[in-house]
Specification:
It contains 8 helices and 14 strands. By secondary structure, the protein is an alpha/beta fold. α1 crosses α3 and α4 crosses α8. The two termini are 24 Å apart.
Amino acid sequence: MTARIGLGVDVGGSGIKGATVDLETGELTRDRLRIETPQPATPEAVAEVILQVASSFVDELGDGPVGVTIPGVVTGGVVRTAANIDPSWIGTDIDAVLTERLSRPVRVVNDADAAGVAEARFGAARDTAGLVLVTTLGTGIGSALLFNGQLVPNSELGHLEIDGHDAESRAASSAREAEGLTWEEWAVRLQRYYGVIEDLLWPSLIVVGGGVSKKADKFLPLLHLRAPIVAATLRNQAGIVGAAVLAAEEQAAAAATCS
């Protein structure tokens, strides 16, 4: 039986990474291709790089779906916010731009949402019932909420106001580095952040991703929460995998509607 294949492309502030994904297992079928993010990172310039990435996998992809992540809120295919990319993205119907540029349907989603879906389907939150919170701790704090495995998109919980501050300005991994905080000092801030979210949402599980999750043993044992809190398992593949999965689901839904 031939594997179902999709393409995921993860757009970041410094690099655009893509790979084909086995949609049944969540595994990459080839090594990732990474290309530097163009500067300025306008929709047109980024679309050209995404086309370049997609062209490298077209033989394997066939007519499979293409999913793309961006660091911003996306509703109805339209970008509403822009972090680490050019402000000209705001108000752009990026689904339409990329569908035309790649000559195939493209689904664009928030990067943290894609990572959350990947962890729920194939990673640390697989088969977890109830509400799951997936966070990515990096330059900011990305968040994804999933209820019984279904995504509640664009949660943006990194921007909660806590103690008079935008939460990510104090609890992101970048804040730890910029302020030279020890793991213990940073854990105090994480405890406050996750504690507030717990009191609001009562998740069944919290998953921590982002590059710093590779050092989860330095800070997760210092946190004391009601919900279990664990490190993400897919790490830098999560956005690619989640984007491919969400694009496949949209393709399947469109096919069902037409049949």
